[in-house]
């Protein structure tokens, strides 16, 4: 029996403030110890959804690429198919999570030291692959569509995330799904002239 899904309503301090409950905020901030402590106190927090966005702790962790917390939540059997208010699952965010602004700054700074810059990019790419693999193994719906009709494959193509596209296709992602703009993932790759991705999808079709 899966843990109860509950909603946390936190006070809003400003119009733009995120009203995450404490566990969602901890998952977003990569505070592993706090996530662990809160779940030990109350297992119902596992699938809590904040009242503003509907994000769960798992979605929050995936937004930030916090793999250790994602792994912990999955071992606790967090529901990978819960959707937020944009109808997105954790997978929609995982495939979009590649490099943060800070990562790009570090890469630019370290670019003169080519090996270090290269290793940083490889490390971040591997982390993203691992994140997506964890979710796929946990049974996330690879063809779930959000409020715009987009699947994870649509977003992976849009983000030129070549590392995870083969993983999605291997997990039976449907390249023929059209979003609300009438575009398939292949259409997006073609429009953005991502020829390698276009070839990947054509080969799998």
Automatic annotation (TrEMBL):
Alphabetized Pfam families for the sequence: Ank_2 (PF12796)
Transmembrane segments: 101-121
ANK repeats: 53-85, 148-180
Keyword Transmembrane helix: yes
Alphabetized PROSITE patterns for the sequence: ANK_REP_REGION, ANK_REPEAT
Cited InterPro entries: Ankyrin_rpt (IPR002110), Ankyrin_rpt-contain_sf (IPR036770), ANR22 (IPR042802)
Domain of life: Eukaryota
Keyword set, alphabetical order: ANK repeat, Membrane, Transmembrane, Transmembrane helix
Entry-linked PANTHER family: ANKYRIN REPEAT DOMAIN-CONTAINING PROTEIN 22
Name of the protein in its database record: Uncharacterized protein
Biological source species: Hirundo rustica rustica
